[in-house]
Amino acid sequence: MSPSPVAELVDLMALERLEQNLFRGASRDIGTKYVFGGQVLGQALSAAQQTVEAPRVAHSAHAYFLRAGDVEAPIVYTVERTRDGNTFSTRRVEAIQHGQQIFVMAVSFQRPEPGVEHQAAMPEVPRPEDLDPPEPIDPERFAHIPAKLQRWLSAKGPFEFRHVWPRDEIRVPKRPPIQHVWFRLRERIGDDETLHRALLAYASDFHLIGTATLPHGISYLQPNVQMASLDHALWLHRTFRVDEWLLYSCDSPTAVGARGLARGAVYDTLGRLVASTAQEGLLRVLPA
Question: Is position 229 annotated as part of the catalytic site?
């Protein structure tokens, strides 16, 4: 029996340790043209976490995507132990394929300590159980999508998504650059906090830069639209579980110069702000 998509994803985050600071991760073809950016984010965070001793946990990561990743080749991650202070540790991660850097990331870890607290309120949106799962694309329209993207759209992935405002990716209406998406793993996993953080890094690359396309009525499915993640920032504020519902609330304040900027806030069902994200992405529309 084939492993479930969740089991496959958990295995994807379990890197092979080659040396003390050197790791190798498999690549998974999920139907995208190149390696999904969330895979590299999650694996890089997983590599960095293996060089830091508990109880220090990752609280922020800042990454740049340098080259497209090859889905047919493994990725090697090198971790530089930049600093270990009394409270904070810093790591620098490079992802390498075919002898070239494809990605770099700096990660900061902190020993837990008490402090003042406040947060932005969670948006008032329907609960996930009150929303319907996404409807399949009409078969006639689906047939005109390139075969690789058909696999991306039809595959039952490890995460379940429920959109507060569903979007038609083929006949795309123009609307304000805001979206709210509930998501969770389709199966329960263990209590390893580092795994939950790596999987949130993976999931945080879904939907984010797509928010910048909403006012323009364009979609990554259109052949004249080029989209790619350029960078990614992730801040981890509070503990959470990715196998329980989380709300990804995204907005895009600007798009200019063939680039779009998007921001995200991740809340749990209790309304706690557990993570924040930001990303700039290539948003190029070629002559039709």
Answer: yes
Out of 43, 89, 204, 205, pick the active-site residue.
205
Structural domain that includes position 270: 5-112+126-285
120 occurs within a structural domain: no
Residue 205 annotated as catalytic: yes
The residue from 39, 204, 229, 249 that is catalytic is: 229
Q: Calculate the CA dihedral of residues 63, 65, 70, 71 and round it to 10 degrees.
A: 50
- Asked whether the whole model's pTM tops 0.85, one would answer yes
Number of domains in the chain: 1
pLDDT grade for 143, boundaries at 50, 70 and 90: low
